[in-house]
Amino acid sequence: MIHEAQPKTGTSSRAAAHTTATGGRSMPAVPVQLQHNSTTATPVVQRTPQDWARSPKIATILQHEPGFFSTWKKIKGAINDYKILPTRALQNRWDLLHEMQSLIAVWKAGHVGDTTQRVAGIRGVLPDLENLISHEQLEIRTAAYRTGGEMYTSATRPEIAFSIVKRGNNLEISSENPRISGNIEFVVANGAIDLRHFEAQPEGLGLGTVLMNEFARFTSGMGIEIVEVQTAALSAMGAYEAFGGIPRPGREDAFELSKGQYAAAMGLTNDQEHGEHIAEGHGDTSYDNFINEEAKAIGTTKVNKAEFENPGQGPEALAAIRSQAEQAHKDRNPRTVANVKRAARLKALSAFLSYKTSDLLDKTNAMMAGKWKIEK
């Protein structure tokens, strides 16, 4: 199952194990390192202190002059100190960002009701500074994140065992079995997260569900509520909807409009005499094309699973498996009102796909229940 996207943009007890409160001056605790197939990787941080040095917003913020005894002078000093910190000095960066937040709180408390021009100017740039700080903290938390070290073993197939590791901007399946693989690639930027690529092989074994569960734990630990995707694999939209896929917040109207347009193009019509029905003699091929693409993806999944379970099967046997799976899907999905509505919804959702982190976590937890033995 493959999920492609271009760059854009309630927690379970297991997810809580990946998250530590960030009160005080210390950085969020790094979860336990992997104990099996662990690989140490250099943290990937997309934002750096040097980005601050080049930021037009920071330049504008620093133009505001403090009063003689103003805390703003200390805030400017902290900003300038931050600009020259090494990128990978994560703890030092976290501490200085926290210091800025504390100083901002002191400044605000000391200037309540002050409407002088100087104070009003500083107050006007504080939201930009606070956003920059929060985005920087998210990047640092992302770089410091470590997967929890669980070993996943199939409850029915003990030879299927793997762990998940974080390498840069990827969550990857790590297994002694070279035929088991998968990864999720993501981008964290400007306080948001985008899922760029999702793949697990062989398909049909539940590997993708475990990966998505780890990804939900990751995003939950980062405090991110919504995951956005720009371009999803259309043939796998049914699976992505099963993970809890929803239209992006704020784009619901555009999604509904697109869904209606697809349904009409696929032959759905409505009138007082017949109600909703498929127009007679409808010649558009978009519905059949959608079902055919789904059928091909399902056929590939069945073949990959069959090859994994029985490597000795010849090409004729695999071709028969593929053909049977594809035809079965086509037979289950004739052009009916209900089926056209499903296809139209999934085609529309592919352009507006997002996940609510808490729902993604709940869905994948439920899908995994009883199917995997999980050990530290």
Task: Walk me through the topology.
Blueprint lengths: L1 E3 L8 H4 L32 H6 L1 H7 L9 H12 L6 H21 L6 H28 L6 E4 L6 E7 L2 E5 L6 E9 L2 E10 L5 H15 L4 E3 L8 H6 L2 E3 L4 H14 L2 E4 L3 E4 L7 H24 L5 H18 L4 H14 L2 E4 H12 L3 E4 L1
Parallel strand pairs: 6-7
Antiparallel strand pairs: 1-6, 2-3, 2-12, 3-4, 4-5, 5-6, 7-11, 8-11, 9-10
Helix pairs in contact: 3-6, 4-5, 5-6, 7-13, 9-12, 10-11
Can you put this structure into words, describing what you see?
The structure is a single chain. The protein has 13 helices and twelve strands. 48% of the residues lie in helices and 16% in strands. The protein is flat, with a radius of gyration of 26 Å. α4 packs antiparallel against α5 and α9 packs across α12. The strands form two sheets. Strands 1, 2, 3, 4, 5, 6, 7, 8, 11 and 12 form a ten-stranded mixed β-sheet that branches. The protein has a two-stranded antiparallel ribbon with strand order 9-10. A hairpin with a 6-residue loop joins β2 and β3. It has 376 residues and is of the alpha+beta class. The chain folds into three domains: 134 residues, no CATH class; 96 residues, no CATH class; 96 residues, no CATH class. The N terminus is likely disordered.
